[in-house]
Structures are given as C-alpha cells and as structure tokens.
Specification:
Strand content: 25-35%
Low-confidence stretches: 5-25
Number of helices: 4
Number of strands: 7
Strand order of the largest sheet: 2-1-3-4-5-6-7
Structural class: alpha/beta
Radius of gyration: 19 Å
Order of helices and strands: HEHEHEEHEEE
Helix content: 25-40%
Mean pLDDT: 87
Largest sheet: 7 strands, mixed
C-alpha cells in the first residue's frame, strides 16, 4: 500500500476510533460508581481505599430505602448485602471488597453479577486496620443468583 495523505488520514482516524467510542484503554484506571447512605463513614473510608489503590471513584448519596431497592434490582439478596453498592464495568461490588479482588474480577471477567463481602467485617478495607481483621469471605454472585467463594481472608 502506498503511503498517501488519504491513507494516513484513514489510519489516524481508525487509531482514534476506540477512544471516540468510549472504549477504555488497558492502562486507564477502572471507574467505580458508589451508591451509599450520606451518613455512613465506613463507606467513605472504603471509597478512599479504592482511590488509594488507583481506582477512579464517583459517589452518589441516597437514602437507605432507595439504596435497598437498587440492591434488590441488581440481584443483591439481604444475605449478601452490606452498607454500600458500587458498579464497575458491568459488575456490582457490594460492601467492603478489597481492591485486589475487584482487579481480579475485571481481569478474569467471569459470567457473574459481581462480588460481595456481606455485612461489615472488621479489618476489611474501610472497616479498621487489616492487622486486626476478623476472618471474612468475598463471594462471587452468579447471574443465576448462585454464590461461590471468590477469596477468603483469615483473621489477622
């Protein structure tokens, strides 16, 4: 193929196409959108932990009753619920999920709704020092509502 001005313009336009379609670059930080009650301090601490880990985070405050409806609509059962819900690249992240597990989810891309750390275990990100944590599990929520162990953290 001869390098002409026309071919150069076409090649340049094609190279820019992914960015113009909103396709994320591999090196771009993942964008989390967090829904939380405005009075919840540990939710804010988790947001800061995710930002410190390199995620781009936006926050939307909403009353607990509205948040409960969002959770139910996303497939989060009361047994899987925690204090805040996030969305990232088509997945739901419920509660104090560690940044490494969110990264692994995004790398592996399983057919799932997302991840949950049910409740508010002490020592999970945003819930106190990891050096004093209680044991907790990160649960993978399947699209059919099934659950499985994604990661497990022993007590410190």
């Amino acid at each position: 193929m001869t390098l002409t001005r026309r071919n150069l313009l076409i090649a340049t336009a094609l190279a820019c196409l992914p960015a113009s379609l909103g396709v994320a670059r591999a090196d771009a930080p993942a964008r989390l959108h967090v829904l939380k009650d405005p009075a919840c301090g540990c939710c804010g601490d988790w947001v800061e932990a995710m930002r410190a880990a390199g995620f781009e985070v936006s926050v939307e405050d909403m009353p607990n009753d509205a948040l409960a409806r969002v959770k139910a609509g996303a497939g989060i059962t009361p047994a899987l619920a925690s204090c805040h819900t996030a969305r990232v690249e088509g997945y739901v992240i419920e509660g104090h999920v560690p940044p490494a597990d969110v990264r692994r989810l995004l790398a592996e891309r399983p057919a799932a709704i997302g991840l949950s750390v049910p409740g508010m275990p002490y020592g999970a990100p945003g819930m106190g020092p990891e050096s004093e944590r209680e044991a907790y599990d990160v649960i993978l929520i399947g699209r059919d509502g099934s659950t499985g162990l994604f990661a497990s953290y022993a007590a410190a």
